[in-house]
Amino acid sequence: MPPKKPKQPNIEAEEKLSAVVIADSFDQHLMPLTQTTPRCLLPLCNVPLLEYTFELLATAGVEEVFLFCRVHAATIKQYLAQSKWTKSHAPFGVTVIVSQEALSVGDVLRELDGKSLIRTDFILIYGDVVSNMNLGKALEKHRNRKAVDKNAIMTMVVKDASPNHPTRGHQEAVFITDGQTQQLLHYVPSDYGIAPRKSVPVSVELFEKHPAVQVRYDLMDCCIDICSVEVPALFTENFDYQDIRRDFVTGILGSEVLDSTFYLYPLTHEYGARVATGQLYDAISRDVIGRWVFPMVPDCNLVEGDQYVHKRNHVYQEPLVKLSRTAELDRNVVIGNHSQVGENSRITCSVIGRNCTIGDNVVIDGAYLFDGTVVHSGSRVHRAILGYQVTVYENTTVSDGCLLGDRVQVGPNIALPRSVRLSRYGTDNAQVLDHSDQELTTGEVDLALVGSQGLGEKWVPSDDEDEVEVQYMSLTALAADVAALTLANPHLADNDDGGLSDSSQDSMDELENDNALEPEDAFGDEVEATLDRAFKEDHAVNDTLLELKGLRFANNKTNHDIRVILLPKILDLVEVQQLRTSLAAVLKRWGSLVASVINSDTDQADALSIISSYCLEASERTILFMPCVKYLYDLDIVDEDILLGWYAYVNKNVTDKERLLYQKLQPLIDWLNEAEEDDSGDEDDDEDED
Amino acid sequence: MFLVDQTGTSKYQIVPEFQAVILAGNKGHLYPLATEDNVPKALLPVANRPMISYTLQWLEQTGIQDVIVVVCPSSETQLTHYLRTVYEGTANIDIVVMEEYYSTAEALRHISSRIFRDFVVMTCDTVLLSSPQPFFDAHRSANPALSALFFHPTKSEGGGGSTKDSEWPLYVGLDPREHQLLYLKQGERVKENLDIRTSLLENFQRFDLLTNLQDAHVYIFQRWVLDFILVQKHLPSIQKDVLPLLVKCQYRSALAEAEGLTEILKRAKANTKHIASVSQWTTKRSADPQNPALRCNIYVEPKEFVGRATSIPSYCDINKQISKMFTDQRTHPTAEVHMRSQVGADSMVGNETKLDERCSVKRSVIGAHCTIGKNVKIVNSILMDYVTIEDGVKLDGCVLCNNVKIMTKAQLKDCEVGAGLVVDPNAQAKNERIVSSFVEGEEQDMQINFA
């Protein structure tokens, strides 16, 4: 409608600036803490997360907030009723929308469209985002851009962060942008390090319109989007879109019909992150304590009635804390009113809620204790989150990655294993409780796990959660096992500069600290151990195969990696003195295992190469070569034409030693050639290096 | 560092920094221009000067004195003659003859025994009018394993020859802040998707990916890279094989290891130790000479003219652009242009060439010793030496090789005519490659007959 155009700015100015806040997380990352408290009300540095989000919106001049809840709606409403956001001086009005059916962000936006609540650009944010950015500037940019590019529908706020930065939380999304306009041209969503990808595909068509693009892997998603009115409508049109990144952004960008465009708004000096996982809860807490999110720091007392004071070494303390004379708050500690710490206890890098009691000789390091938690004398809590009113009895160790739900009790005199999640509200995730005063389950308590006075059962992710999510959870759990992580993704080990800087690494560094080899060795040892056991205890082939497969997937290896270890191991079994008989016996016993790791033509050639290099290692092994290959041929593990092709290929470029070995194969080759004259043998593909 | 000569007076001897290798083979898509009966590629005229003279001059500007020119047997005589007697530069030119089919990396392997220090490799079809200093200074300051010169190709004006360039894009990834070359992929080797390695992303989290750059095929290599090229016997091309592999090895240590690069680097490191003191002494700011890190640099020529004559259209474009930039006298003093003929300000006429009356020459380059009749129109064309054009001929977008004769009133548009051919009177041709007496479609009203 061209005639209306000059009027438009006025209309927009009159429109209320609104924000859509999604209070539900739609995931289980912080279970079982979120069984009783919605994620947006979990305390981060003793302030409910929602306060951070609302504060950000208030500073941006938002006038209208739609808060979407699914579970715990009553709790959220109750919290809002007593908070400053519903007082008469509140900067914006909050409309709480409860929708039990919404199971994803997509559902929320479709509902938003259905109710046609939004008539202008809006801010889409989650109830658990912590940021100090100037949203106003981003909004202005978004609006100005719409004047230039009327197809612009969304501005995504991102922040520079090197891939291994803790606050990035293993997001491995790749953004391909137009360096000048910051238009997002291609988006490869994060796979969360589950199946480390070898490469990222970029369509060639992209370059037809944009001859020069920028590839950005140094960006983390702040989960703050400025959306145009069209966004909810697009979700309604594409009713299968669930996730806003994985489905919506990739879907619309890949669409040939729609020419809607996305833009990035990169933050450089501001902060923005979402508490999406346990690991991020830890990282963001540290950032808040370390004043990276200034002015949102504990001593600005976001919640009315808080009285935190900032002391040296980033210790934030309320006035009514009772510290014994010898208790030590080392550094980076937040501790709330009416909490007390006993003699010789030491607290480092931790957050202690209100009304907590910490006994004598307790060590608390990197832990988060919600209100009313009691830690008895002689216990240690290390990198864990303890919910409301948790009790840790005497001489108990809560180790890395534990998440203890409300009112769980552990101890005395036990050590909880790593990464255990305990709950007293059952492990049935389908019905999430709406009130914390609901009955506690009386399920059987595993006293061996939680101790003689313990209360609580082990919580495990529910089955309906898809497998990828579950794996991601274990990876991003608080204090996820760094060693396991390194195994899963050798790239991560390569460069950990830890800082926010995205300086490209000197290539020499990479050559020198080639950590990628270490995990492989670990994997090799494991496979060897498995095989030794199988040979010694005479396992069934299928069981061994299953174990090998498990190892392979766990370490993200290929069949080649298995073959390299398996074949020499099997050949080691052969006794050279009684070559024929023992070889026949060994291959009869284990041949099917060998066969099962050799699938394609390339695999066969690869196996032949492995065997030949094994035989080259020691001179007495050379006699093994021909019979072994012959048996593999007889067992149909190696095809005739592959063998001939391989033979022709390796003979092109050989050393003397190799030639001697290959000559042993000549009778077999001749025999094969005679059998089938027209066999020319195809070249086997060499392992693709691209 | 200094020698005492016989007379006993000591003086400093300048240690040359680089050697240069010019690959002057006949490869390319320049048939029928670069053939045995015409001239070798290196001697094709660009604004009435042999192509290779631009390359040599550019090298001389950097102070490089030792130049090895690799030629193929078919062009040996002509090229040797030119380099030994006609060319007036100061460089010491070493001519090496190699079989025609040798590819670029093979050529380097062949002459490796003659290369003693860091070296520059270029082809004769790169025409550079830019100053080499910024490129060389960038190389000196970062001290990478190699530096490559890239440029923004000038848009083709079209016209010139019967073929059209269907060039594949070159995908170039570079870190603009560090001038590091991170990704290199020939368009013809890409199917649907470019695959960007995770290891690349891990090591270089932010880089530009461009398709609007072209490789000038000018590289500065450290000496040890030659060792690597010697090991990699199966790699045929520097541009298409060696360079991408080195670029990949920057972030794929396992690959570098497998290809034997790590080993060579280690050795190179050990060898540089004793030279280190020298280079520290000569250049103050050499970036850690003890550490010949595997790093590929890219220098993107900001504005000055660089072009590559790899095909007939690009050859024509370069001719036009350079003749436009030419500031000296456009018409050679010995040329005779009739008063009533017009030669445009964007055209050039070579020595001893005669133009009769009522001729018009626009956006064209006419070589030496040509004879042009009356009422001839030449637009957008290149005429080499000893071309004869009779009255009333019209040429548009044509390339005529040496000794071509075009008879009365012939009209040619977008054609190439091979050396020594005669085009009949009243002949008409469009988009034709005229190379021999046999032409397809002869039986129709085609009026061309060839001697």
From TrEMBL, chain A:
Protein location: Cytoplasm, Cytosol
Family of the protein in this entry: Belongs to the eIF-2B gamma/epsilon subunits family.
GO CC annotations, alphabetized: cytosol; eukaryotic translation initiation factor 2B complex
Main location: cytoplasm
W2 domain: residues covered: 517-682
Protein name: Translation initiation factor eIF2B subunit epsilon
Keyword Metal-binding appears in the UniProt entry: no
PANTHER family according to UniProt: TRANSLATION INITIATION FACTOR EIF-2B SUBUNIT EPSILON
Keywords annotated in UniProt: Cytoplasm, Initiation factor, Protein biosynthesis
Subunit structure: Component of the translation initiation factor 2B (eIF2B) complex which is a heterodecamer of two sets of five different subunits: alpha, beta, gamma, delta and epsilon. Subunits alpha, beta and delta comprise a regulatory subcomplex and subunits epsilon and gamma comprise a catalytic subcomplex. Within the complex, the hexameric regulatory complex resides at the center, with the two heterodimeric catalytic subcomplexes bound on opposite sides.
One Pfam assignment: W2
InterPro entries with a match to the protein in the record: ARM-type_fold (IPR016024), eIF-2B_epsilon_N (IPR035543), eIF2B_epsilon (IPR051956), LbH_EIF2B3/5 (IPR056764), NTP_transferase_dom (IPR005835), Nucleotide-diphossugar_trans (IPR029044), Trimer_LpxA-like_sf (IPR011004), W2_domain (IPR003307)
Domain of life: Eukaryota
GO molecular function, one term: translation initiation factor activity
ATP-binding recorded as keyword: no
SUPFAM superfamilies the UniProt entry points to: ARM repeat (SSF48371), Nucleotide-diphospho-sugar transferases (SSF53448), Trimeric LpxA-like enzymes (SSF51161)
TrEMBL record, chain B:
Any one GO cellular component localisation term in the record: eukaryotic translation initiation factor 2B complex
Quaternary context: Component of the translation initiation factor 2B (eIF2B) complex which is a heterodecamer of two sets of five different subunits: alpha, beta, gamma, delta and epsilon. Subunits alpha, beta and delta comprise a regulatory subcomplex and subunits epsilon and gamma comprise a catalytic subcomplex. Within the complex, the hexameric regulatory complex resides at the center, with the two heterodimeric catalytic subcomplexes bound on opposite sides.
Organism from which the protein derives: Dispira parvispora
GO biological processes: cytoplasmic translational initiation
Protein name: Translation initiation factor eIF2B subunit gamma
InterPro entries hit by this protein: eIF2B_gamma, LbH_EIF2B3/5, NTP_transferase_dom, Nucleotide-diphossugar_trans
Family (UniProt): Belongs to the eIF-2B gamma/epsilon subunits family.
Domain annotation Nucleotidyl transferase: ranges: 20-151
Record Pfam families: LbH_EIF2B, NTP_transferase
